[in-house]
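Re: folding output
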Amino acid sequence: MALWACHHEPMTQHLTQAQRAQRTDRARDAAVATARELGLTVTDPLILHDLFSVVVHLAPAPVVARVPTVLPPATSPHDLATRQQHELDTTQWLHEQAVPVIAPSPLTPRRPLQRDGFSLTFWTHVPQDQDAEPDYAANAELTPALHRALRHYPGELPFLSAADPQSMTAELTRLQHHPDLLEAADLDRAQREWQLIEPLVRSRAAFEKTFPDIELQPVHGDSPPANIFPSTHGPLYSDFELICLGPIEWDLAGLPEELVQAYDHSARDQDMREADPDVLAFVNTVGKLRVIATLALIPQLPELSDHLTPAVQQWKQGPFAGGLHL
């Protein structure tokens, strides 16, 4: 379909740098045209980020557009728009509760807008503290407060949609045709691991039966310690694209032990529970398989290869399914 063509390039060859640049330009132009139709003055658009999404400051308007450009082929336009609406609704609610977040722009509709095959959302532009050094331990210590606030979110959210089990299955299947991306023996292992844990990802009932003492609640979905923005007015929670219902451990998946300990220390200080080792092992296993599945997106985003290789090697050296016994 034409609507999705700009996102889903052929998987048989990698995008060239020129094609990559053209996709970025199309995303920026879609954001600028949409903003102008909404009555915003945009004369100096500036691309702030370009990986899975193109993020554009629509200067001089105090508005930032986020335009997803690299998506699993199994993601439908409806799926993406639903996910974006969850993010907009949740962050607006958090903003109204005085939780420090990057909020949706009050100058644009609070819903995803479609243009030229893209689905766009608009956010308040916040100046970045250019002198701030990343402090992931401090960010991990800030995460329990976010979990405390999210407990009270009144909206409906899907269970563990951040794991995207439909795309996980589809991408692992697609890798059968790309031995250049993952060897057959490694793919066989990944598929067997996924068969073991998939029921707990797809079914809330199956998860709760396996972990009966673990409360589910809204969670950020995409490692909040890595998604806290250093604004000139202090740290702000950001990038809730994968907001969903899950265990708090989901937001700690893949973190080094010292960052989990920083989270636990802060949680204890706030009379909140610490991370459960068994649930943490489960979410870490899911996270590693998501890395393997993401190899299928390398043709769309060739630079992913350098980002993913260390994690893939770590997975190869680890025990089957992270040593889980389900």
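--- second protein (sequence, then structure) ---
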Amino acid sequence: MVVEESKPPRASPLTRFLQLIRFSHTIFALPFALGALLVAANGHPTLRTSLLVLACMVLARTAAMLFNRLCDWSLDQKNPRTADRHRLVAKPIAWMFLALTAIGFLLASAAINRLTGLLAPVALAIIFLYSLTKRFTSATHFFLGFALAIAPAGAWIAQTGRLELPPIVLGAGVICWVAGFDLIYATQDFDFDRRVGMRSLVVELGVARSLRLAQWLHLFMFLALVAFGITANLGTIYYAAMPLVAAALVYEHRSARNLDLAGINRAFFQSNAFVSAIFIAAVAIDRWR
């Protein structure tokens, strides 16, 4: 008698949707938004503001990821690394959820204060623009950083109704941080991007020089975090956490230098998640003590 091998259970629609938008990567930008909110509120934002900022973050990122997937729908099918991505969710469903999350973001932003409501369409346009930049500029990594840097600025405005120096400094750090780890991540697609004519600094500079640039960008990110502590009047606990951030960044580059897929994924997710977690923990403890 022949025994057929059992097939693994098919993932649920929700699981496939979360895989499509890489929901687990929300941890990267969210702590910087929450950290800015805590500093702006001196450690005590209202529950309403906190929930609205959280909703804006999740909705904006989901809309941005869906827009990215839809823009690259045909392109992803040609890339061996992403060839199965389009099978996770049907295209019409992706369009529907893009509309729902974009509208939800605009409504949640308008519910916070007048300035966040006015700036919400601009923020949405910026985060959508990133998905198109790889078609006309090699600086696409910095556009991604700028898109994520909107988060701490938006959270600060949500609390205070104005933009000040600390979130600008923190945003500059986020730009350098994101551009650096996106350069590392983009080394996976070096051959594919060069073949199909996609623009990136990895294609422009080559892998080795791109990894060196990523190191410099993460150095600037570290300095920006220190400068944020100064401009935001953070205390000893915050600065005591900075060596842990530096260690995580060093580990990230050591993990990625062999250019193996496991090392790059380890550098991309584990190290960056640790950096985010250390940052928000240091800010929270400093402001709540």
